[in-house]
User: What shape does this take?
Amino acid sequence: MSTSLQAVREIVTASSSGQAALLQVLLAVQDSSPENYVSEEAVNEIAHLLGVSRSRVYSTASFYSVISLKPRGRHIVRVCINAPCENAGKQAVLIALEQELGVSLGGTTADGRFTLEGVSCLGACYMSPAIKIDNRLYGDLTPEAAVAIIRSYGEEDTIEHTA
Amino acid sequence: MSTPHDSANSVFRLGLFRDFPTLMHYRDFGGYQALANALSGSPEAVIGEIGAAGLRGRGGAAFPTAAKLQMVRDNPPGVRYVICNADEGEPGTFKDRFIMTHIPFQLLEGMAIAAYAVGAAQGFIYIRHEYPEAQETMRRAIAAARAAGLLGADILGSGFSFDIEIFSGAGSYLCGEETALLSSIEGKKGRPRLKPPYPTQCGLWGKPTLINNVETLANIPPIVDRGSAWYRALGTADSHGTKLISLSGDVVRRGLYEVPFGTTFREIIYDYGGGLKQGRLKAVNIGGASGVVVPPWELDCPLEYDACGQRGITIGSGAVFVMDDSRSVLENVRNRIDFFLHESCGKCTPCREGLRQAGRIIHKTLAGEAVLADIDNLERYTRTMQNAAFCGLGQAAGNSLISSLKYFRDDYEAMCRDQNQAAPKEATA
Assistant: This one.
């Protein structure tokens, strides 16, 4: 399920900043999507409502690594791949995450719960290796700790689901 | 953050590190006195004080801040903007995130003073997407400052009006380049523009625009409050004030440190960072991914613009990343080249193709498949990037590589498959 067109309209209407709208609208539309992406229908609606061409919207959307034009998982797991984290053991953490989730970097789990991505620097080099899950930062990780964190998300999801 | 030197000599308002720093708490520490001082005087007086303090941009380029303020001020009357560049994406750097999450009001106060100096009514803080907590803290701080009459219309009853909006980045390192940042706010791809015209004349939507780094703007209130003489006394004859250092890697105490200019890199690593966790020091990367890789014997260089410049050391954003002797300098450089290849916008050929070729040769070297001629080519491609790339990203992308070739060439050559073998045709072409 992607963002409803009604939601896109509400986001565009709410972005009263006018000129500085397109990138912020794309981010807001993506955030409102349960599958963490900007759908083709949403692109069409954004172009229509902001009065810009579809190619302009695609041009901006495809440039930025945070914006996805393909469906992703409910939770985005971002692993920092830069030198400080790499030196501190990022590779072992990444392998453990790939095994736990059953996907490689860039993949989404079959149940649609997690997408695993690499990210350039989380600004957490003082607690490398670090990952971010949605908006939460986790540092000083070992492979075991990273797996435990993923499992805790799994439990939260299940609780939400059955509640 | 910790400071071995006296907190009275700190530019950053210590004692404010809480879950959410309140405006009241900031004011208890003397916050917003500088804005009141500034508003009771002339914009020229503010620029004069910052100029006398000798403040230089803390984002990496080290451009004199007062000169930039004056350039924006000198434009014909009309709309102008103040933009805080909080797109801190330099691997190894985390100072701006710290300022935003712990002392947000110091940044807002600095922006308001800068806006008064240049005559701007609107400001933006461009915060990278990877810092949602910093975006949230800044939003709350802006709302609190607005409610207290420290942002918005008629600030402190002075008749001066200035407001700030948060703008989120979307995962592009290049948007830290000032003209790419402007394109991004305008809703376009974050690609750099040709300079001149400089943003100080033709910036956001074609209007004169002041763009400064978070740390630079946060330096302004203490200068206006305590005076340029106090500020100059903190540093050295050449470099004034203090610098935030993001220390990471194989040291005992990784973290953010405020150090006075003149402190040596050896002191930063051993006195502030507690030395190495294990092993011996192999190399230090100074200035982030676009910085340089130096051997231990360069560490007695003081943190000073001139002294560092003479040795080819770039202070950059203030990142110091330490590697012990179990680390491979080549692997480290490979990681940085891969990073820049991913972040290059592809607009200019030297950056786009130069990084691709540099990456190919480093991977080949690490696989033990390179010959000596490849290393010469690696140096040649990188020099071309430094000299001919369109923007700062491409020009600086090879800094770690060139410096590693200068100091650690033996490490490269030792990885070549046959020291005596002639270069194959492909590598010499």
Chain B touches chain A through 55 residues (CB under 8 Å). Residues 94 and 352 of chain B are 27 Å apart (CA to CA).
